[in-house]
Amino acid sequence: MASATEQLAGSMNLGVLAKATELKKRIWFTLGALIVYRIGTYVPVPGVDAQVMGEMLRQHGGGILGMFDMFTGGALGRMTVFALNIMPYISASIITQLMTAAIPSWEALKKEGESGRKKLNQYTRYLTLVIAIVQAWGIAVGLEGIRGSTGAAVADPGMFFRVSAVITLVGGTMFLMWLGEQITARGVGNGISLVIFAGIVANLPSALVSTLELGRTGALSTFFIIFFLLAALSVIAFVVFMERSQRRIPVQYPKRQVGNRMFGGEATHLPLKLNTAGVIPPIFASSLLLLPATVAGFSTDQSADSWLTTVANLLAHGQPLYMGLYLALIAFFAFFYTAVVFNPAETADNLKKYGGFVPGIRPGQQTADYLDRVLTRLTVVGAAYLCIVCIIPELLISNYGVPFYFGGTSLLIIVTVTMDTVAQIQSHLFAHQYEGLIKKARLGGRGPRPR
């Protein structure tokens, strides 16, 4: 009997993998979309000399432009159609969420459910278009003033080039926004996060080779390179541990009798993650720091005494202003995004509606205050964890010239996006497994009953 049960379980597991056609389609769609994105990072903007852009980025890549190039997967250094990447959409999402908390009508839209969410998404798309146009115009104007050893970056500057560059860059950003939404709807994982993830991972091999090259030329000692790689692995393990950490608040449901049957009485828990905001705070903080400094970075060669040069220098890696703003924005968005995704008052009302309560805490307002107090303490620890993970590698990057791809933000994005994608794949597999169990139970119930 035991062997038959084991064979049945084994055949069911094989059947889950063999019959999960929907999951296979989602995975192939995601891979295909990411391949399209990587191909687009090599399609150049018309009229721009990529060699001059690469030379400029090598000269000024130690600051904000180097980080921007990391998020774009090298598209900025090659000045391709995806040079703006998905950053305008992220900036628009930040503004939309801030406006949702500030404008009552937008807050009402958020509570309307699916219809309200669609309207807010539409507002985010419109705002993305506006931000992309502004950034693309700034890049087009900045490109006309860049000169390298082989000549100017733009062979034929003028209004025609500016308009064509704006159309190309804005079109690339809007296409990436659409592609990310399609991955979220028809693929696995969050599409916007996967686009950034793909850009970072694609250049990891070259970043590793450049780090080893620094060791070969003597710029970095072998001991330091080994220590840095071990530290990167330690940071990855630490991120996995912290991302899986949660506070489980016990919830009790009372027993109730319906007719002759007794329902309820079970005890469960409400899981609160230590880092509820996930990877959003570092991404938002980086995008806001990139937004005002993009034009400044392109204009540093035009006038050494201009205020744009001063801004670019102050926002360079390792500078106190950059580090302070980076930490402050990470902490702010950790609290802000946690408040957006988790509402203690709404959670307490739902518990009270279904008869649940936290042992020792009165239902209603006291439960909401208790959840808010616990969540605030967790967010303090989570924000400190994000600041530590993101700032220590940044200090090493600024002092020792290690590539950005080994920074805290990039490692955090890689680990959290991988964990979220794997979790979604597992949820699809579990759904297929439950479906298989239900089908087998129904088939087994049709047979004759044993006497």
Automatic annotation (TrEMBL):
Gene3D superfamilies in UniProt: SecY subunit domain
UniProt cross-references to Pfam families, sorted A to Z: SecY
Can the keyword Cytoplasm be found in this entry's annotation? no
What domain of life does the native source organism fall in? Answer: Bacteria
Membrane topology is: Multi-pass membrane protein
Broad class of the protein's primary localization: membrane
Q: Which UniProt keywords apply?
A: Cell membrane, Membrane, Protein transport, Translocation, Transmembrane, Transmembrane helix, Transport
Where do the TM regions start and end? Answer: 27-45, 126-147, 159-179, 191-212, 218-241, 279-300, 320-342, 374-396, 402-423
Give compartment(s): Cell membrane; Membrane
What family does this belong to? Belongs to the SecY/SEC61-alpha family.
Describe the subunit structure. Component of the Sec protein translocase complex. Heterotrimer consisting of SecY, SecE and SecG subunits. The heterotrimers can form oligomers, although 1 heterotrimer is thought to be able to translocate proteins. Interacts with the ribosome. Interacts with SecDF, and other proteins may be involved. Interacts with SecA.
**Function, please?**
The central subunit of the protein translocation channel SecYEG. Consists of two halves formed by TMs 1-5 and 6-10. These two domains form a lateral gate at the front which open onto the bilayer between TMs 2 and 7, and are clamped together by SecE at the back. The channel is closed by both a pore ring composed of hydrophobic SecY resides and a short helix (helix 2A) on the extracellular side of the membrane which forms a plug. The plug probably moves laterally to allow the channel to open. The ring and the pore may move independently.
Q: What is this protein called?
A: Protein translocase subunit SecY
Query: From which source organism is this entry?
Result: Sabulicella glaciei
Phylogenetic classification of the source organism: Bacteria, Pseudomonadati, Pseudomonadota, Alphaproteobacteria, Acetobacterales
